[in-house]
Write a structure and sequence with these properties.
42% of the residues lie in helices and 19% in strands. With 267 residues, it is an alpha/beta fold. The chain has 2 domains: 6-98 and 215-264, Rossmann fold (3-Layer(aba) Sandwich); 102-212, Rossmann fold (3-Layer(aba) Sandwich). The structure holds D-glutamic acid.
């Protein structure tokens, strides 16, 4: 094995693996550490200050232990809340965040009707509202908060099937018909959702463009890391860390399938 710099990917669960898939293609020479804060899943349901406090404390431990060259917050719910606070708390650490792709959706829509499908947390954030004001003022944006989709995606990853009626119910509000026009773009503003994309396509009332940001995040990571020298070269395997210490065996198997050694709990 070669000595490699480390990129740490972070999510509340296994959704961030959708970003890892893309990032590994562009950054194969980096070691991946994947951290799932599954003890606190779902992030979408947390009260903001409590989640922020939890994340700052957890990242203090993770940075000290893994000394990553770059941290990719592969979670919209976490990024829209905490990316600025994390940058302030750890000014020497490079971060890439994941935020709803409202700007590209506003540029691409033909009908002028765009929906943003996200967790209730991301929908509530001021950060998300500011993105709409700044980039989509002339577009009709419907924010759709889903209580269940992230968990349905985890279920799907675990068992290989999902209740399609439940998926259909969760995405129904994204489809708007107004003045003879219909929604033509749905932004997938949660990293769990790309795993359900085929099911969403199947149950959607009409075809739309689904915007998945994984590749754009990977490109952002590549451009940032291209400017750096790895600071902590390690001859070690890719590692997945689950904070609960009680992760179901199917999810551990899934992480192993992605080439990770699995560890329960941060040190
Ligand atoms: N994967 C997370 C995101 O991108 C959300 C899942 C959760 O609610 O914890 O928003």
């Amino acid at each position: 094995m070669n000595s490699r710099g480390t990129i740490l990917y972070f999510d509340s669960g296994i959704g961030g693996l959708s970003v890892v898939k893309e990032a590994r293609i562009l950054l194969p020479e980096y070691r991946s550490v994947y951290v799932a804060d599954d003890a606190a899943f779902p992030y979408g349901a947390w009260e903001e200050q409590a989640l922020l406090d939890r994340m700052i404390a957890l990242f203090g431990q993770l940075i000290a232990e893994h000394r990553p060259d770059l941290i990719v917050i592969a979670c919209n719910t976490a990024s829209t809340l905490a990316i600025e606070a994390l940058r302030n708390a750890f000014p020497d650490q490079a971060f890439v965040g994941t935020v709803p792709a409202i700007k590209p959706a506003a540029e691409r829509t033909v009908s002028g009707l765009v929906s943003v499908l996200a967790t209730p947390g991301t929908v509530r954030r001021q950060y998300t509202r500011d993105l709409i004001d700044r980039y989509a003022a002339r577009v009709h944006v419907r924010l759709v908060g889903s209580e269940r989709l992230a968990a349905l995606a985890e279920d799907y990853m675990r068992r290989g099937f999902v209740d399609e009626k439940a998926v259909s119910d969760e995405i129904a509000k994204c489809f708007v018909e107004q003045d003879g026009k219909r929604t033509d773009i749905v932004v997938l503003a949660c990293t769990h959702y790309p795993f359900l994309i085929n099911r969403m396509r199947k149950v959607a009332p009409w075809p739309v463009d689904w915007i998945d940001t994984s590749e754009a995040i990977a490109r952002r990571a590549l451009s940032l890391i291209g400017e750096m020298k790895p600071s902590n070269l390690l001859d070690a395997a890719d590692l997945a860390v689950f904070t609960s210490g009680m992760t179901p065996p199917e999810l551990c198997r899934l992480a192993k399938g992605f080439g990770f050694e699995v560890r329960q709990r941060p040190q």
